[in-house]
């Protein structure tokens, strides 16, 4: 190559040679600078700045107007891999088009989220696809393929999967540890990530904030031991925002940031997202770690090399060859149609006694009521709407505006203090309308404004009537008659200035706290209390400084809803959540219950008109047993993006037969749920895989406007595959989609196995009377489990049922296959030490970090309560003489047989901290195959047990 065109710019050279050439030209300081999220340009080499991270969960987010598709959980509800791939293509295309006009838009997209929806109280459930690893993996493969593109060398965008690993709680999310036993790790959490990585459409992963087994995810040994073994491709690991600092500041896992940075880099973190755009702290920490000998230049080179691989794949150095470099498709007719199609396919019909579909030709009078009837809600990871369709908009368009009446159902109230009634000053249209690019209303530009007058007190009048919505748990929003929400800006003033609640810290939520004969009005975002001074309403820091308000109800929302319902032929109640309130990033839900105000609204509508249909537009499931039992129809849809209302109206009108299916179990009540921090889905019987109670609606559930018959199931084991086929026929009057679901289960397993487990799915469109033969190839390995006794994946010999049906609980056909092979041997405890984490069952224990680098140990969950481990079928052969316990901490370890007979008790008083292990010997005489119980008390940490054969 010539001097002015170095080898790294030669597209004919192998990628590795190009990367090595560029890496070799970078100085150490230039390489260190690239470790931060915002890597600076290298002007002497003609290299531009590079930013890791562009949110693209269901559209390009945070960068202004873009096509907004349904929430991720809604895409999961479509059960349609092809559709989701097309959505990924559209999102990736718009990212390219937006970058062409704004270089702040990144092509290293942080999407999708593949964390499993294990617990429906998780605040970020809207971001995931399903509680099932197979469905999650299939949808993630589809989305990443769309984002990546199909060119053999160049990528449309470079997707990063979130969040590695076992992350399902916002409560104490940066300090809580998920206790994940090996079976759950291999059978559940890893599976959600593996499929997309092995499919080749993933550029990397982002570790989660939480710890797993006592070790922060940003130090996860599984990045090396598992993730990087799944592909020959270099993978980029991007830290979550602020997480590198958390290793010291909140988790206290290291004493210095230099130690933490070095440990994260060695564990495999390649890009540090910390302190926003200021890279100085990160680069100083890297240099400090280098000077202390905690890392060497090779560790830095490894991380930079992975970043460069991504940049080359994105065509940065070959703009003339990059097929995506000139992409300009943005907000096209095709993208708009796709957004509508996705929203239609995401609608799930939960119950229906025949009231649906409605007949537009009959011109029914509809009352469209409820707090979300005229809303098109966005979430934290949405783009800005270019166009908007609420349920009210869609129904007016489809059924005729003259046939549709509306009542929101918010309570209309006045708030009065000693200074007078709260009054919202008038604002002219120019002051309240702030528009961004493409003329779209930008809510982010409205909230936090300080150019509008604050609220005042009206001492002689009634003030302003406000719409009060209680989103549950007493969390309120208050809205002025012109649609502006009360909000608090940085100056502490209370203004009607927000188009919608939103922001990282929501400034539009309040709480009425009883105080004397009235209430204090607490602003939740700041924790302060509203008072009205001469210069307007503001937030005071202390409760004593807040005004006492009386709440005057002008009209109850239930009365308005009942009036509208009484004159209608059919009532459509639209209820649900605001994705920025009571369940979102940083905040888990407290209950499955529908907020009381919304519960009252559907009951008021039904009392006035029994022909009431409830539509739940929400990011997560609700326990709505009464509604399911009393109302003639119930539907659910995730927030459906820009076409949500049009899609819902078309489903209600029968233009589209609903075929969405639940991607997670809907439980009947809070009592059905385990503790939010209990990650042992096997031991605590979580998700449809193990839950043996009666759910409100099962995984995979969804009804149609037609009927389907299943027939002619065949299942045959051939080599490494189970070949399955069956026929689905539309036996009803309407063309419709059916989601055929294939499950498998072990009939007589030796260990607890799923009650049924998704093995395949297919969404098919069938005309009335039409049938289709569906064929599936299920790897035999999919019938297996992680054998903790031998540390490997195992498919036991025996009978396996193959189940075909319309949901996990609606099985229409069953066949069996016989798998032959060698039966599991007992646990070979004399051949190698037993890792304590490889237990079969446990009670009262948690897994912890064996060392700060790798390995697990077991310790009591509470120092004041004993814990117990059970190891089944331990083969002691002709007999043992002693047991060796690798332990740290303080407490007692007891060894007993399965029947409870105690054979040894060892007191542990190891000094030197939790990682200072010692090996203690104790006599232990036992022979044959036995179950062993190990009791733990105090702060003892058990890493392993070894057994000495008798001589």
UniProtKB/TrEMBL annotation:
Keywords: Hydrolase, Signal. One of its GO terms (molecular function) is hydrolase activity. Gene3D superfamilies: 2.60.120.380, Galactose-binding domain-like (2.60.120.260), Glycoside hydrolase family 3 C-terminal domain (3.40.50.1700), Glycoside hydrolase, family 3, N-terminal domain (3.20.20.300), Immunoglobulins (2.60.40.10). Residues 828-949 form the Cellulose binding type IV domain. SUPFAM superfamilies: (Trans)glycosidases, Actin-crosslinking proteins, Beta-D-glucan exohydrolase, C-terminal domain, Galactose-binding domain-like. InterPro entries: Actin-crosslinking, BXL, CBM6, Cellulose-bd_IV, Fn3-like, Galactose-bd-like_sf, GH, Glyco_hydro_3_C. Belongs to the glycosyl hydrolase 3 family. PANTHER family: BETA-D-XYLOSIDASE 5-RELATED, SUGAR HYDROLASE-RELATED. Residues 738-808 form the Fibronectin type III-like domain. The lineage of its organism: Bacteria, Bacillati, Actinomycetota, Actinomycetes, Kitasatosporales. CDD domains: beta-trefoil_FSCN_BglX-like, CBM6_xylanase-like. This is Glycoside hydrolase family 3 C-terminal domain-containing protein. It comes from the Bacteria.
């Amino acid at each position: 190559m010539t001097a002015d065109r170095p080898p790294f710019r030669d597209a004919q050279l192998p990628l590795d040679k190009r990367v090595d050439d560029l890496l070799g030209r970078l100085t150490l300081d230039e390489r260190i600078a690239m470790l931060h999220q915002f890597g600076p340009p290298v002007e002497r080499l003609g290299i531009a700045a590079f930013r890791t991270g562009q949110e693209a969960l269901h559209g390009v987010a945070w960068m202004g107007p873009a096509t907004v598709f349904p929430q991720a959980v809604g895409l999961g509800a479509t059960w349609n891999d092809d559709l989701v791939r097309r959505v990924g293509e559209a999102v990736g295309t718009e990212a390219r088009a937006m970058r062409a006009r704004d270089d702040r838009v990144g092509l290293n997209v942080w999407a999708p989220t593949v964390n499993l929806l294990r617990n429906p109280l998780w605040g970020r459930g809207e971001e995931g696809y399903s509680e099932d690893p197979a469905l999650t993996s299939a949808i993630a493969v589809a989305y990443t393929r769309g984002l990546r593109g199909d060119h053999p060398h160049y990528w449309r965008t470079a997707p990063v999967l979130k969040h590695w690993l076992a992350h399902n709680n916002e409560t104490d999310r940066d300090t809580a540890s998920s206790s994940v036993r090996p079976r759950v790790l291999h059978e559940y959490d890893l599976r959600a990530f593996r499929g997309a990585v092995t499919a080749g459409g993933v550029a990397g992963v982002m570790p989660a904030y939480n710890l797993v087994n006592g070790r922060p995810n940003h130090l996860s040994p599984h990045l090396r031991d598992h993730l990087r073994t799944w592909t020959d491709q270099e993978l980029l690991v991007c830290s979550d925002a602020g997480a590198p600092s958390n290793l010291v500041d909140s988790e206290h896992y290291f004493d210095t940031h230099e130690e933490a940075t070095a440990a994260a880099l060695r564990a495999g973190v390649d890009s540090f997202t910390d302190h926003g755009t200021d890279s100085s702290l990160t680069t100083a920490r890297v240099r400090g770690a280098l000077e202390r000998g905690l890392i060497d230049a090779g560790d830095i080179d490894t991380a930079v090399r992975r970043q460069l691989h991504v940049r080359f794949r994105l065509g940065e150095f070959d703009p003339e060859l990059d097929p995506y470099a000139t992409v300009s498709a943005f907000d096209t007719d095709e993208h708009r149609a796709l957004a509508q199609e996705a929203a239609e396919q995401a609608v799930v019909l939960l119950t229906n006694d025949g009231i649906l579909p409605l007949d537009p030709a009959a011109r029914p009078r509809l009352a469209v009521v409820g707090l979300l009837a005229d809303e098109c809600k966005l979430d934290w990871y949405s783009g800005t709407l270019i166009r908007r369709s609420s349920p009210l908009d869609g129904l007016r368009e489809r059924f005729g505006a003259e046939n549709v009446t509306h009542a929101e159902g918010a309570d209309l109230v006045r708030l009065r203090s000693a200074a007078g009634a709260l009054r919202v000053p008038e604002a002219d249209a120019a002051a309240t309308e702030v528009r961004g690019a493409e003329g779209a209303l930008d809510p982010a530009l409205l909230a936090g404004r300080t150019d509008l007058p604050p609220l005042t007190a009206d001492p002689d009048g009634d003030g302003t009537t406000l719409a009060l919505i209680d989103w549950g748990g007493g969390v309120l929003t208050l809205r002025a008659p012109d649609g502006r929400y009360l909000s608090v800006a940085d100056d502490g003033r209370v203004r009607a200035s927000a188009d919608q609640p939103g922001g990282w810290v929501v400034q539009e939520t309040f709480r009425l706290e009883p105080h004397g004969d009235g209430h204090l009005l607490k602003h939740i975002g700041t924790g302060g209390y509203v008072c009205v001074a001469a210069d307007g309403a503001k937030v005071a820091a202390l409760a004593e400084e807040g005004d006492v308000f009386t709440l005057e109800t002008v009209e109850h929302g239930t009365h308005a809803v009942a009036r509208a319902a009484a004159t209608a032929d059919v009532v459509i109640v639209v209820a649900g959540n605001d994705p920025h309130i009571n369940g979102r990033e940083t905040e888990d839900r407290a209950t499955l219950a529908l907020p009381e105000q919304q519960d009252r609204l559907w009951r008021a509508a039904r009392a006035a008109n029994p022909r009431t249909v409830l539509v739940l537009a929400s990011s997560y499931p609700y326990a709505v047993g009464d509604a399911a039992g009393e109302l003639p129809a119930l539907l659910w849809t995730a927030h459906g993006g820009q076409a949500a209302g049009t899609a819902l109206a078309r489903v209600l009108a029968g233009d589209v037969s609903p075929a969405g299916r639940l991607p997670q179990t809907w439980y009947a009540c809070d009592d059905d749920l385990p503790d939010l921090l209990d990650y042992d889905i096997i031991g605590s019987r979580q998700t449809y895989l193990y839950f043996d109670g009666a759910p409100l609606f099962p995984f995979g559930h969804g009804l149609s406007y037609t009927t389907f018959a299943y027939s002619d199931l065949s299942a045959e084991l051939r080599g490494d595959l189970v070949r399955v086929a069956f026929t689905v026929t539309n036996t009803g009057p309407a063309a419709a989609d059916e989601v055929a679901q294939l499950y498998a289960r072990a009939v007589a397993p030796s260990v607890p196995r799923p009650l049924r487990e998704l093995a395949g799915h297919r969404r098919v469109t069938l005309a009335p009377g039409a049938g289709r033969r569906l064929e599936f190839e299920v790897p035999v390995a999919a019938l297996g489990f992680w054998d903790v006794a031998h540390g490997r994946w195992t498919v036991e010999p025996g009978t396996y049922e193959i189940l075909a049906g319309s949901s996990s609980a609606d099985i229409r056909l069953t066949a069996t296959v016989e798998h032959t092979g060698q039966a599991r041997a007992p646990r070979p405890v004399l051949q190698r030490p037993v890792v304590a984490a490889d237990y079969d069952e446990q009670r009262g224990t948690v897994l912890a970090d064996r060392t700060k680098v790798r390995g697990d140990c077991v310790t009591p969950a509470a120092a004041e309560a004993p814990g117990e481990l059970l190891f089944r079928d331990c083969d002691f052969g002709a007999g043992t003489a002693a047991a060796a316990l690798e332990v740290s901490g303080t407490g007692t370890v007891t060894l007993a047989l399965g029947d409870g007979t105690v054979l040894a008790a060892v007191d542990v008083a190891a000094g030197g901290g939790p990682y200072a292990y010692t090996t203690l010997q104790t006599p232990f005489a036992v022979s044959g195959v036995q179950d062993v119980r190990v009791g733990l008390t105090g702060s003892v940490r058990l890493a392993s047990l070894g057994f000495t054969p008798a001589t």
